[in-house]
Amino acid sequence: MGELLRKIDLIIRYIIATTLLSLGTYCLITDNVIASNWLSLKIILFGGILFNGIWIRNIVGKMHDSILLAKSNEINAQQQGEDEIKTHQSLLNKAAFSIWLLVILMAFLGEVKPF
Q1: DSSP string spanning the chain?
Q2: Distance in angstroms (rounded) separating the CA atoms of residues 46 and 33
Q3: Please, what is the average pLDDT of the chain?
Q4: 109 and 45 in contact (C-beta within 8 Å)?
Q5: What is the C-alpha separation between 25 and 28, in angstroms, rounded?
Q6: Whether residue 9 has pLDDT greater than 90
Q7: Which of 47, 98, 100, 105 is a plausible cystine mate for 21, CB 3.0–4.6 Å?
Q8: For residue 35, is pLDDT > 90?
Q9: Is the dihedral of CA 39, 42, 43, 44 positive or negative?
């Protein structure tokens, strides 16, 4: 049941993120629905934040197997697990940095409303 709910949640997140990116892009190009370009861009950025969250969940999901390898009694498996954890951690750092940049940019657009 838990796996089914996780998949449903992920599908909903993909749908919402894609919808936000599409809506924001459509509004930015046509000036329909939302006439303020800064708000359209914020909607696009929010969709990007949702995709970034999906990316983070994907990385964390892969880390589970790497942690199990690192806990293994076999030396080669331990080293492989530790190497994979370092790779995943590097990706997580990039994803976290990206999400912060997107949030800061959204805050900037909301405060300054440049266009």
Answers
A1: -HHHHHHHHHHHHHHHHHHHHHHHHHHHHH--S---HHHHHHHHHHHHHHHHHHHHHHHHHHHHHHHHHHTSSSHHHHHHHHHHHHHHHHHHHHHHHHHHHHHHHHHHHHHH---
A2: 17
A3: 94
A4: yes
A5: 5
A6: yes
A7: 47
A8: no
A9: positive
Query: What per-residue confidence (pLDDT) applies to 77?
Result: 87
Find where tokens 């959204």 sit: 106
pLDDT exceeds cutoff 90 at 17: yes
Rounded CA separation 93/66 (Å):
17
Domain boundaries, given as residue ranges, for the chain:
2-112
- Tokens for 80? 């492989």
Q: Which two tokens stand for residue 95?
A: 């994803």
Per-residue pLDDT for 50 more than 90? yes
